[in-house]
Specification:
Elements lengths: L2 H16 L3 H14 L7 H6 L3 H27 L8 H9 L1 H37 L7 H17 L2 H25 L21 H15 L3 H15 L3 H29 L3 H10 L3 H9 L2 H40 L6 H22 L4 H26 L10 H22 L1
Helix pairs in contact: 2-8, 2-10, 2-11, 2-14, 4-9, 4-10, 4-11, 4-16, 4-17, 5-6, 6-7, 6-14, 6-15, 6-16, 7-15, 8-11, 8-14, 9-17, 10-11, 10-14, 13-14, 14-15, 16-17
């Protein structure tokens, strides 16, 4: 075969690799499904309360700060020498056994508490729906939690592909309802938010408002728990071309996130006054609940819990993949230290049982400290998502090719702002 034929074959292979496949669409929607969950229902309140200028700045920052950070984490997972290595194994390969164990533990501690939060949230939301909308008697909490969590774990038992497929299917009704809601609010738009437009921001000042709002933005669009599973799956499918394909899928997914979510945020903010948003924040309820009370609409009273249930289900499944990865990693590393090993199927069964029992206990108990647990997980996620991949670019030979880009400095700065903002919120 001469060189011209080889070049043609290489070109054909390249073209087939870069062609968009059904699995790429599934993952694009799966990434969206993990990121866009219950947090989005609080985003209009947190993002809009500072006034118009901070909201516009956040809308402009949303795509670059989420895309570059998640692309960095994806590249980090793909930089491992073993094709099927997940994030816990790549960390050990690059930073050593000790650091591998520590970061795997942090990874698990960042994601697992959020899984507990979602187990409580879905139990509360369904219970509220049964009593308020269906006008039925509230079932025993432990039984309701068990039924809901067994249902979610049944999807999990069918494997990673089924989780992603279910999440990508749930995205369609969620986006449709979110967009219809945003359009339905248009007749209620007012100019109230334009009355006090200034670069000083509202109340706290522009810099302070942005500083405290960026962590909210970061975690409303966060889907780091599923990035490792995404990178591993695409590497199996595309081999050496996985990084280019992953970047394309991430770009489309983030574009979809930013356009749909920011349209929803702007529509909510334009239909309420800054005083309304401050009242919603004080009441500590989602924007849907506040809108239902504010406009006194029965339709919203029915829609709010249904949207919340779909949002929580999607996010639970996406976070489960990350929590399982972290928990499996901890067990594998612990057994390896004693010269033992366990099959992946047995490990997944044990992890599923642990997750079911622990989420059921917490959902039945219904503790009030879960908000604090979720907030404490925030700085760890920010370190893993923003700082670790950027550190690896400077330290790991396999990632050195990504050094020198302005986006790296941007990711580090956003990461530091997010971490400091979260810590300030905790102390404050």
């Amino acid at each position: 075969m001469d060189s011209s034929q080889t070049a043609v074959l290489a070109g054909d292979k390249q073209q087939s690799v870069m062609a968009w496949r059904k699995s790429d669409t599934m993952w694009m929607l799966g990434l969206y499904g993990t990121a866009i969950g219950a947090g989005v229902l609080f985003l209009p309140i947190n993002a809009g309360i500072g006034g118009l200028i901070p909201l516009i700045i956040m809308a402009l920052l949303a795509f670059p700060m989420t895309y570059y950070a998640h692309r960095g984490l994806c590249r980090f997972v793909l930089s491992g020498s073993k094709p099927g290595a997940d994030i816990t194994e790549v960390v050990e390969e690059h930073f050593g056994v000790g650091a591998g164990k520590l970061i795997t533990l942090l990874y698990f501690l960042a994601i697992y508490p959020i899984l507990l939060v979602y187990s409580v949230a879905i139990t509360n939301t369904v219970d509220s729906f049964i009593t308020h909308q269906l006008q039925l008697q509230s079932p025993p909490r432990a039984l309701l939690a068990l039924i809901l969590l067994v249902g979610l774990m049944t999807i999990v038992r069918f494997g990673k592909e089924m989780i992603v497929k279910t999440m990508s299917l749930l995205v369609f009704p969620f986006v449709a309802v979110l967009m219809l809601l945003a359009l339905w609010l248009i007749p209620n738009w007012s100019s109230a938010i334009f009355d006090n437009v200034s670069l000083a921001g509202s109340g706290n000042g522009l810099v302070m408002t942005l500083w405290l709002a960026i962590p909210v933005m970061v975690f409303s669009f966060n889907h780091s728990p599923i990035i490792s599973a995404f990178a591993v799956a695409k590497r199996e499918e595309y081999g050496d071309q996985a990084e280019r394909k992953c970047s394309r899928i991430l770009a489309f997914s983030h574009l979809m996130m930013v356009v749909t979510v920011m349209f929803f945020v702007f529509s909510c903010v334009l239909s309420l006054t800054p005083e309304n948003l401050a009242e919603a924040k004080q009441q500590n309820i989602s924007i849907l609940s506040y809108l239902a009370n504010h406009f006194n609409t029965p339709m919203m009273a029915w829609l709010a819990p249904i949207i919340a249930i779909v949002a929580i289900t999607k996010s639970f499944l996406g976070h489960y993949l990350g929590a399982r990865e972290g928990f499996n990693g901890l067990i594998v590393k612990s057994l390896r230290g004693r010269g033992k090993q366990v099959s992946e199927s047995k490990l997944n069964r044990f992890t599923a049982l642990f997750m079911l029992v622990s989420t059921w206990i917490v959902a039945s108990w219904n503790p009030s400290i879960l908000g604090m647990i979720e907030t404490l997980g925030g700085p760890i996620i920010a370190v893993l998502l923003f700082l670790m991949p950027m550190y690896a670019i400077n330290k790991v030979p396999a990632m050195r090719k990504y050094s020198g880009a302005a986006s790296n400095l941007f990711v580090v700065l956003v990461g530091l702002v997010a971490i400091s903002g979260i810590l300030f919120n905790l102390v404050g």
